[in-house]
């Protein structure tokens, strides 16, 4: 496991920091430290414009191979970029799902024609994607998916019917990658396919889900004879489960270090307030702050361990613990933030519903151990896939 950086890496770090300082200013100054979890509905148009600025610097897909339009940066350099991006207050990325999830998946499993069509708009910061996995009754349990798709032999179109839920930024997306059941009578992992579906069509309806934070970055998405070209199938019919699992492997990739820098920014804010209001003098709170600090370092070292292996989408054993670890840590940080704020945690700064950064953090972290795979499912994955224990009885 590589835990250090060379002199050349540190020089690269200075270049990234200088680029961020030069570009995250003027019209984009207001985006600093905004648009992260719980704040994803902030200034979407301005953040889309920012994506094109990031693209102009060659930072979108910087770790992709040059064959697919990337810069082929080393793992160390990618880690440095994500760290410096978060340290500078870079806004939540509107293009994260395209760059970090579907892009590498198309690069790994797509045809040359699909790669030439879909990857350049992602790299240019012009096409935005959402993820059509979870469904009512099939949230963490993807094998229970009910959304169906059938191939019309006359129009050469896949026709899709069903519903997805908790679809982040579906209302801002141009495309959705949809896991659908394409084999009649299939159950479980079999008979699933991975489809790329344009969002701007009559057969798709997006319904925002308003949360207790006052935001609505999540959505329900309804497919009623929605269509996509037969050419927009990734892999072969029935390959959906294999491709979906590979995509989850890419999700546990380099961007996890950027996520941790955002966590560090939140922890720094908690520490700042604790020093200001005297909460830092409470021995119990001091101990919890120290535990949060050390827990974040453990997350970092595990991420470096994950990144020391081959980045081919395979879910390495050490990667199986990451979702459970960070969501549990972040949940406790939300509680710590409220306890550090004290009585102010229950007061709103202004009406009608203006949450402070830490109040929004606390409320949003209630969902951390549920979305993206509940903690119960994550423990099953660790037991069955990492430790080789018998599967849970069904």
TrEMBL record:
Residues 238-386 form the Acyl-CoA dehydrogenase/oxidase C-terminal domain. InterPro entries: Acyl-CoA_Oxase/DH_mid-dom, Acyl-CoA_Oxase/DH_mid-dom_sf, AcylCo_DH-like_C, AcylCo_DH/oxidase_C, AcylCoA_DH/ox_N, AcylCoA_DH/ox_N_sf, AcylCoA_DH/oxidase_NM_dom_sf, Mycobact_Acyl-CoA_DH. GO terms for cellular component: plasma membrane. Residues 8-126 form the Acyl-CoA dehydrogenase/oxidase N-terminal domain. Keywords: FAD, Flavoprotein, Oxidoreductase. Its cofactor is FAD. The keyword Oxidoreductase applies. Residues 130-225 form the Acyl-CoA oxidase/dehydrogenase middle domain. One of its GO terms (molecular function) is oxidoreductase activity, acting on the CH-CH group of donors. PANTHER family: ACYL-COA DEHYDROGENASE, ACYL-COA DEHYDROGENASE FADE29. Belongs to the acyl-CoA dehydrogenase family. This is Acyl-CoA dehydrogenase. It comes from Pseudomonas helleri. The lineage of its organism: Bacteria, Pseudomonadati, Pseudomonadota, Gammaproteobacteria, Pseudomonadales.
């Amino acid at each position: 496991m590589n835990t250090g950086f060379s002199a050349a890496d540190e020089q690269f770090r200075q270049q990234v920091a200088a680029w961020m300082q030069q570009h995250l200013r003027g019209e984009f100054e207001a985006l600093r430290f905004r648009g992260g979890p719980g704040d994803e509905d902030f200034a979407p148009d301005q953040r889309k414009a920012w994506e094109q600025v990031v693209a102009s610097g060659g930072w979108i897909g910087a770790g992709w191979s040059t064959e697919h339009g990337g810069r082929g940066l080393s793992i160390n350099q990618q880690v440095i970029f994500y760290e410096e991006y978060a340290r500078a207050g870079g806004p939540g990325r509107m293009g994260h799902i395209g760059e970090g999830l579907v892009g590498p998946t198309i690069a790994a499993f797509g045809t040359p024609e699909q790669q030439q069509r879909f990857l350049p708009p992602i790299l240019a910061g012009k096409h935005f994607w959402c993820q059509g996995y979870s469904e009512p009754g099939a949230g963490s349990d993807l094998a229970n998916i009910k959304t169906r798709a059938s191939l019309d032999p006359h129009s050469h179109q896949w026709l899709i019917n069903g519903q997805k839920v908790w679809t982040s930024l579906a209302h801002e997306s141009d495309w959705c990658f949809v896991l659908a059941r394409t084999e009649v009578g299939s159950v479980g992992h079999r008979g699933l396919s991975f489809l790329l579906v344009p969002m701007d069509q009559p057969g798709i309806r997006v319904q925002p889900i308003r949360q207790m934070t006052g935001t609505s970055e999540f959505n329900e998405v309804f497919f009623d004879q929605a269509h996509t070209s037969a050419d927009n199938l990734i892999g072969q019919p029935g390959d959906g489960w294999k491709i979906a699992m590979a995509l989850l492997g890419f999700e546990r990739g380099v961007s996890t270090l950027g996520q941790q820098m955002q966590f560090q920014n939140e922890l720094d804010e908690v520490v700042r307030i604790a020093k200001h209001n005297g909460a830092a003098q409470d021995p119990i709170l001091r101990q919890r702050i120290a535990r949060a600090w050390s827990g974040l370092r453990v997350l970092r070292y595990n991420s470096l361990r994950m990144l020391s292996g081959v980045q081919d989408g395979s879910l390495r054993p050490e990667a199986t613990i990451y979702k459970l670890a960070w969501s549990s840590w972040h949940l406790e940080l939300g509680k710590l933030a409220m306890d550090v704020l004290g009585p102010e945690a229950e007061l709103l700064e202004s009406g009608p519903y203006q949450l402070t950064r830490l109040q929004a953090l606390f409320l949003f972290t209630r969902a951390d151990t549920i979305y993206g795979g509940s903690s119960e499912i994550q423990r099953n994955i660790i037991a069955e896939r990492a430790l080789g224990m018998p599967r849970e009885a069904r």
